[in-house]
Prior knowledge:
Radius of gyration: 26 Å
Structural class: mainly beta
Number of helices: 4
Low-confidence stretches: 235-241, 323-341
Oligomer: single chain
Amino acid sequence: MESHEGAAAVGDGVLDFSRLSLNTLSVDSISDRRKRDTKQLYLNYNRLASLPSSVTFFCNLEFLDISNNGLSFMCEDITRLTKLKTLVAKNNRLDEFSLPKEFGSLPLEVLNFSGNRFEEIPLQCTKLLRLQSLSLGGNRLKSIPAEIENLTSLEMLYLGGNLISAIPPEIASLPYLSYLVLCDNRIQSVPPQFTRLNSLRSLSLHNNLLTYLPREILSLVHLQELSLRGNPLVVRFVKEMTYDPPSLLELAGRTIKSRNLLYSPLDLPANLVRYLDLASKCPNPKCGGVYFDSCVRQIKFVDFCGKYRLPLMHYLCSPECTSPCSSNPQSDAESEEENSVPADRLQRVLLG
């Protein structure tokens, strides 16, 4: 079995050029047959400043590891690897300007860019429609682009150890997302749209700036692990928060909705019909009221697995509304469903 200047031909379809202090990659001594048969190529722990164009001679390559080099540029030739499924490029010097324009045309299923210098997620990455696993941990990301919703095959998203301050609601459009890691960032809130992440099993949010969670998190029926340690989650019940008095428009809308008055496009302008259709029902079962833009934010502690009490955000129609969000777990206004999450559903809640 042939090798190249100390490279190890590990087995059928595998070539290992790792830890050889390579500045470039020469394939002159490798037979054409060997090039065709190689499906896995290891170039990690070398001194490559850019991806060698010679990798394209391995036309059937499915796995490429170029981690732990000084890599700052990825040549256009990588797009010729039309069978590449896994690209591991951890711990290099790559940023959003390092990738070729057509990088998104690759048939990648696994992409690992952790430990680089990305300040933005390259839009080329959001065009990898077959991608199942994306890792960009330990970079300098400040935001997550809305285009992340294009990755509809994604099952694992690792963005821990960045500078992210907000989670875009578009993440909730990923139907197969099972593992979401957003730890060690600057995130202050979780979007209520997370209720649409029906496949989510593990959510890592530790070491952020969270003070509450949306009550919709209780709808994540497959969630088994939730990590929240290192967040300034509120430690006591907060009775009332900011409240802006309702406008005359809202007061009129509340009257129409709460008294079940009939209306149609024949009676009202289209914009008022749309407004009335946006009414939200007050969660207090003893109230029956509605609200539009003006509401009272309130924190409710919910029992998880009989051991942890997590603060979830609720919205009430007015300060006078008797809250179902009492800190007393025996409150008769609380439903059993809201008061606890079965232990067999959420297996691990990590708070400390």
